[in-house]
Amino acid sequence: MFRLRNSGLRAVAAICPPRGGLLADGFIDSQQVICPPHNHAFRLINGQCTTGAPSVRAYPMHAEDGELTLRLDTPQ
Ligand code: FES
Questions:
Q1: Which of 12, 33, 38, 50 to mutate to test the pocket of ligand 1 (most atoms within 8 A of CB)?
Q2: Distance in angstroms (rounded) separating the CA atoms of residues 74 and 32
Q3: If DSSP states are collapsed to H, E and C, what string results for the chain?
Q4: In whole angstroms, what is the distance from residue 70 CA to residue 49 CA?
Q5: Is any ligand 1 atom within 6 A of the Cβ of residue 25?
Q6: What is the sign, positive or negative, of the torsion defined by CA atoms of 29, 75, 7, 69?
Q7: Cβ of 4: how many Cβ atoms within 10 Å?
């Protein structure tokens, strides 16, 4: 899960498909996370890889009354 500077929330699968890198260790901006080992980039909104690797799952999430809700049954 990532909280963006504009307070938006994004959630993607934790493991990078090519070789199992941890996306939580990646570098993010407002639109993508870059996995450190091989620099594949994944869109935070839908998990699509923009550098040729398989995509990761992305999950809708929101915050309400101090609680985070993550929907695992409806990947984006
Ligand atoms: S393990 Fe993520 S880019 Fe290689």
A1: 38
A2: 20
A3: CEECCCCCEEEECCECCCCCCEHHHCEECCCEEECCCCCCEEECCCCCECCCCCCCCEECEEEECCEEEECCCCCC
A4: 21
A5: no
A6: negative
A7: 13
The CATH code of domain 2-63 reads 2.102.10.10
d(CA 14, CA 56): 8
The residue extents of the domains of the chain are 2-63
Cβ atoms of 48 and 12 within 8 Å: the answer is: no
pTM given for the model: 0.89
Does the beta carbon of 37 sit less than 6 angstroms from any atom of ligand 1?
Answer: yes
3 CA distance to ligand 1 middle (Å): 21
Instruction: Give the model confidence (pLDDT) of 54-75 as tens digits.
Output: 999 999 999 999 999 999 886 5
